[in-house]
Write a structure and sequence with these properties.
CATH class of one domain in chain A: Alpha Beta
Strand content of chain A: 5-15%
Oligomer: homodimer
Mean pLDDT of chain A: 97
Low-confidence stretches of chain A: none
Largest interface: A-B, 42 and 42 residues
Strand order of the largest sheet of chain A: 2-1-6-3-4-5
Number of strands of chain A: 17
Largest sheet of chain A: 6 strands, mixed
Helix content of chain A: 25-40%
CATH topology of one domain in chain A: Aldehyde Ferredoxin Oxidoreductase,  A, domain 1
CATH architecture of one domain in chain A: 4-Layer Sandwich
Structural class of chain A: alpha+beta
Chain lengths: ~575, ~575
C-alpha cells in the first residue's frame, strides 16, 4: 500500500494508467486519504461532473492485513449531490484485495470522449483499460455477472448501475461481497455519478498470488487483533444485537424511543414497525433458507449482514440495513418486508443510495405523486429510475431536487443530502451531526444515537440540547479517524465502552506501522481530516449558514414527545472550535 | 403611496388584509422597498415556499404620476430559484394603478390551508379576498379573460399561470398591459412560485375614481418631465432603435459582435440570426396587421413593445423581447419567428420566465432530450410544463435543476439562475454583472452591454478584462436606484449620454417629493440597496465563492473571437468595495 494508481480518462489516445509512490500522502488511508487528495487536487468550484473532479477509491490503513473488520473502503470526490467534499464508505471484498495489490488508492481523473464506457482490470501484473460498449446501461447485478463470465469468480468488482451512467445525483458505487454480489455500496452523495462521468463502468480486481499484508511486528499485531476480537465478541451490541438481527435491530429500539421518522418526518413512531423489525426479518430469513447472520467481507467477526430470500427460497436481496428498511418502510408508510427487500435489491441493482431514495419517495408521496403506503408505487418509481424516464430521473436526483421539482416545502435535507433514519427532534445528538458534518446529513459521521439511545459511551438525554454538541464533536473526530483505518464503524460500540479494546486497536496500528500512536494522536488525525474537509467546503461556498437543519425541525413538533429541535445556532457554530 | 397593504394568507379564519402607514419604509419605492422589506422581515434561511417568506409587489417612487416611463413594478421575495434575495421587474398597467390607489406595496404573508386558491380585488373602497376553486390551473390568458368577465375591462391584473400554482422555480408573475393581456412578466427567480405558495391566483386592481398622483411642485415637475421626454426622443437608442425594432434590434448587433450565445453557449454567432432579427420581426408584424411599435404601459414614450399576429392576422403574442428571441432562438438553434412567437405566448400563458425556459431547453438539447433546432420539440416541452408532467416539471424548474436531472456538465447559471443573451466571453462587462449581482445572472442588474457594445456612456473594450469591474459596479449602483423610481431601465441609455436628461430625472424626483436629491444621493441610494441585498444573501449562505461564472467560461474559448472570460476572481471580489 505504498503506491497510487492514477487513471487519466481524458488522456490523448485514450485512458492512461500511471502508478506512482504514495509520496506526500504517506501514512494516510481511507477517508483521510480520499479527503486529502480531493482537497489538494480538486478545484472546489469545479462542476462535479467535469474533468477537474477526481474519484478517489481508497482502502484503509489496516485493510489487506489479518486485522478483523478491516475491509471497509472509502470513495471520495466533490459531490454532485451536496456540492461539497464527499467520502462515502462501503464494505465488501475490494478493500482487502486492492490493499494486497499494494494500492493505497485508485484515482480516476479527467474525462473520456463523449459516451465512451470502460472496464478496468487490475491484478498483480498491472492495469488494463478496455472500452466495452456491451456494458452500456447494464445494472450492477448484470455487469458483475458478465465480469464473472470473463474473469472468473475469484475477482471482486467495483461498479455502477444505470443511475451512475446517467450521472444522477443519488447514484452509488457498488462493491461486491463474498458471494460476488454487488450488495455493498458507497451510497451517499452521488459518488456513482462521478464514476459515470469518468466513463468507468466497472473495475475488476484480482489479487491472485498476493500475500496478506505483513505488519512490522507480527507477534504484537496478532496478539492485539485477538484482544480486539475478544472485545467485539463480549460487547452487547457487536457481540449479540448486530450478529442476531443486523442493523435492523434498531427498528424496534428507535421506534420505541419515538425517534423513528414516519410519513416524511411527520411522526416519531410507526404503527407497522414490528412487521419490519430486525427480529421479523431474521425470522423470515431463517425460515426461507436465507441467512440471518453473515459477514459482508472476509475478516468480519460482527457479521451483521444477511441474505433475504423470496417466498420460493430464491435470493431476493442481501439483508436490508436498518436505514434502508426505515427509508422505504416507515418513512413511506410501507410495512411489507418482501416489498422493502425488493426496493433494496432495485436500489443495489440500479446503483442508488437507499437512504436518498426512501427520503425522495417520501417527498414524492407528500407531493401526491403516489400515496403513503403504496409499496408497488414505490417499486415502480425506482424502476422508473432504471429506465431513465423523466419521472425516474427526478427520483434519482434525490430529495432536495425532487422537492423543488414537485414544489414541496417539507424536504428533510442538509447540504442537499437526505436525513437518515433518526429524527433530530427526538435524538438531538444526531441532529447536531446532520447539521454540521462536512458530508451533509449523515448518521455515520458522528453516530450520537449510540450515546443518546443505546447508552454506549455514556448517557446523554436524547430529548434535550445539553451536551449534544460536545458529544457530536467527539464522535465526528473519532469517526474521521476510524474511517481512515479501513475498520468498520461498528467497532466504535466496543471501543467506546471498553478501554482495552480501544487500546488493542491502537496496538494493531502501532504494530503494523511501527508507530507509537496514542489516543491523542488518533484524535489529532480525526481533527486534521475534518479541518481539511471543512476547508474544501468553505472554498466551495459553504458557510455556517449551511450548518443548519431545515426550518421545520424548529417549528413543527414531533409526536409522541411533541418537541422541536432545540440546539441553538450559536452552539452549532462552535462545534469545530476544539 | 403612503400605505402598505399586507395580506396574511394564513390568518385564523381565512386571509386577512391590513392597511398600515408606510412608516419606517418611507421614501422607498420599487426595488428599494421590496428589498428592504424582504431583508428586514424574511428569515434568510427560511424555505422559499414556507409561510415565512413574503411576496412584495411595489410600484416605483414616480409611478402613478404623469412622469413618462414610470410604469414599472418590482416583485421581491426570497427566490425559490437562487435561494437568495430577488427583485424581478415588469411593465404593464398595475404599477400606475396601485400607486394611484395609494399603495406603496402589497405584501403577501403567511400560507393558506392546503390547496386553497384566492382572488384579491383592490379598489378605492378597499380589499376583497375570495376563495375561487374555478381558477385552478387556469393559464394567465384564461384567468385574465375570466376576470374581465367579472370585473370589466377597466381593471388590471397581476396573476400566475399553471407554473406558479405548481410552485415551479421558473414561474413568473404576469402583469396585464394596456390591452388587458398578461404579457408583461416579473420573470426571473421564481417569484410566481412564491405567489403560488401564498395561494393567490390573481390580484385585480381597479383605480376608478382615483386621480393622478400630484407632485409637491407641479410646475417644476411638468417642465422636468418635458425635458426628460425630449432627451429620450433625441437619443439614438431610445428615440430610434427601440421604437422601430424593439429590444430585438439587438439580435443583429450582438450577433455581429460575436457575443450571441448559440447552441447552449457553444458559439458566439448564429447563422440564422437575420431570420429572427428585430428588423424581420417588425416587417412581419407590420405586414400581418400587428404593431411594430407599442407601449407596454400608459405613459411610455419609447414604445419598444409590439404585437405579433399569426399568418391569419390573429393575435399570437406580444412582440417577443430580444432575450426571449435569443433564448428560444439562437440558443436552441431555432430560426423560425412564428415558432419563437408561439414559445413566447406559451411562456406568458403558463407563467414562465422566457430566459430561464430557453436556457433550460438548451440544456435539455445538450442532454439529447430533443435536438438543437427542433422548434416543435421545444414547443412541446413548454406545453409539458403547463400539463405538469414529470418532464414538464423538470423544464419548469430551470436550467440548474434540469442540468442535474439530465446529468449535464455545461449549465450556464450563476447562483442557480440562467445567463441571459450575451456571452460573457465576448462581452466581459456583462459577465462581471452576471457573476456578482445579488440577483444571480441578470443582464438588467448592470447592463454593461451598453458601454461594451453600444458605446453608450463611454466605451470599454468588450473583449478585455480592463475596466469591466468598475463599469459593472457603477451600472449596478445606478440600476438599483433606477429600479426604485418605477422608471423603465431603458431611460438609462439617454441619461448615461445626456447630463441634462439625468438632471431632468433628478428634478422630477425633487419636484415630486420636495427633495434636494443630487447625483451623489442617487448613487447612495443604489449602494444602500445593494448592501441590503448582499447582507441578506450572506445570511442565506452566499459567499464570494458564489460570485463566479460557471467554470466552462474560463476553460472553453468562444468562437469567433476564440477567447475565454478573463476577469480575475480577485477583481470580482472587490466590486462592492466602493
Amino acid at each position: 500500500m505504498d503506491k497510487i494508481l492514477r487513471i487519466d480518462m481524458g488522456a490523448e489516445g485514450g485512458p492512461k494508467a500511471t502508478v506512482s509512490p504514495i509520496g506526500a500522502y504517506a501514512a494516510l488511508g481511507g477517508r483521510g486519504l480520499t479527503s486529502s487528495i480531493v482537497a489538494k487536487e480538486v478545484d472546489p468550484l469545479c462542476h462535479p461532473l467535469s474533468a477537474g473532479n477526481k474519484l478517489v477509491i481508497a482502502p484503509g490503513l489496516l485493510s489487506g492485513s489479518i486485522a478483523a473488520m478491516s475491509g471497509r473502503i472509502s470513495v471520495g470526490c466533490k459531490s454532485p449531490l451536496t456540492g461539497g467534499i464527499k467520502e462515502a464508505n462501503a464494505g465488501g471484498q475490494p478493500s482487502q484485495m486492492l490493499a494486497r495489490l499494494g494500492y493505497a488508492a485508485i484515482v480516476l481523473e479527467g474525462k473520456p470522449k463523449e459516451n465512451a464506457l470502460y472496464k478496468v482490470f487490475i491484478n498483480k501484473d498491472g492495469v488494463k483499460i478496455v472500452e466495452d460498449k456491451s456494458l452500456k446501461m447494464l445494472s450492477n447485478y448484470q455487469v458483475v455477472e458478465k465480469m464473472k463470465g470473463e474473469f472468473g469468480d475469484k475477482v471482486a468488482c467495483i461498479s455502477i448501475g444505470q443511475a451512475g451512467e446517467m450521472r444522477l445525483p443519488a447514484a452509488s458505487v457498488a462493491f461486491t461481497d463474498m458471494e460476488l454480489r454487488p450488495t455493498r455500496h458507497a451510497g451517499r452523495g452521488g459518488v456513482g455519478a462521478v464514476m459515470g462521468s469518468k466513463g468507468v463502468k466497472v473495475i475488476i480486481i484480482d489479487d491472485a498470488g498476493q500475500p496478506t499484508r505483513q505488519p512490522k511486528d507480527p507477534e504484537k499485531f496478532r496478539a492485539a487483533n485477538m484482544k480486539f476480537i475478544e472485545g467485539l465478541r463480549t460487547h452487547a451490541v457487536t457481540g449479540q444485537a448486530l450478529p442476531s438481527y443486523g442493523t435492523n435491530v434498531l427498528t424496534n429500539i428507535i421506534n420505541e424511543a419515538g425517534g423513528y421518522p414516519t410519513y416524511n418526518f411527520k411522526h416519531g413512531r410507526f404503527l407497522g414497525a414490528a412487521k419490519i423489525s430486525g427480529e421479523t426479518f431474521a425470522e423470515i430469513e431463517t425460515k426461507r433458507g436465507g441467512l440471518a447472520t453473515h459477514g459482508c467481507h472476509t475478516g468480519c467477526v460482527i457479521r451483521c449482514s444477511g441474505i433475504y430470500n423470496d417466498k420460493d427460497g430464491h435470493f431476493l436481496s442481501k439483508q436490508p440495513e436498518y436505514e434502508t428498511v426505515w427509508s422505504h418502510g416507515g418513512n413511506c408508510g410501507i410495512d411489507d418486508p418482501d416489498k422493502i427487500a425488493m426496493l433494496d435489491f432495485l436500489d443495489d441493482d440500479i446503483g442508488l443510495d437507499t437512504i436518498e431514495m426512501g427520503a425522495t419517495i417520501g417527498v414524492a408521496m407528500d407531493a401526491g405523486v403516489i400515496k403513503f403506503g403504496d409499496a408497488d408505487g414505490a417499486i415502480n418509481l425506482i424502476k422508473e429510475v432504471g429506465k431513465g424516464t423523466p419521472l425516474g430521473r427526478i427520483i434519482g436526483s434525490g430529495a432536495a431536487i425532487a422537492g423543488k421539482v414537485f414544489g414541496v416545502e417539507k424536504v428533510p435535507v442538509v447540504k442537499g443530502q437526505a436525513l437518515p433514519a433518526y429524527d433530530p427532534r427526538a435524538v438531538h445528538g444526531i441532529g447536531v451531526t446532520y447539521a454540521t458534518s462536512p458530508m451533509g446529513a449523515d448518521h455515520t459521521a458522528g453516530y450520537a444515537v449510540a450515546t443518546n439511545i443505546l447508552k454506549v459511551g455514556g448517557e446523554v438525554d436524547p430529548l434535550k440540547p445539553e451536551g449534544q454538541v460536545e458529544l457530536s464533536r467527539n464522535l465526528q473526530i473519532a469517526t474521521a479517524a476510524i474511517d481512515s483505518t479501513g475498520m468498520c464503524i461498528f467497532i466504535a460500540f466496543a471501543i467506546m465502552d471498553q478501554p482495552e479494546t480501544f487500546q488493542a486497536l491502537l496496538d494493531m496500528l502501532n504494530a503494523f506501522y511501527g508507530l507509537e500512536l496514542t489516543a491523542e494522536g488518533v484524535a489529532e488525525l480525526g481533527k486534521k481530516i475534518l479541518k481539511t474537509e471543512r476547508h474544501f467546503n468553505t472554498r466551495a461556498g459553504f458557510s455556517q449558514h449551511h450548518d443548519r437543519l431545515p426550518g421545520f425541525f424548529k417549528t413543527e413538533s414531533l409526536p409522541p414527545h411533541n418537541i422541536i429541535f432545540q440546539v441553538k445556532d450559536e452552539e452549532l457554530d462552535v462545534i469545530f472550535n476544539w
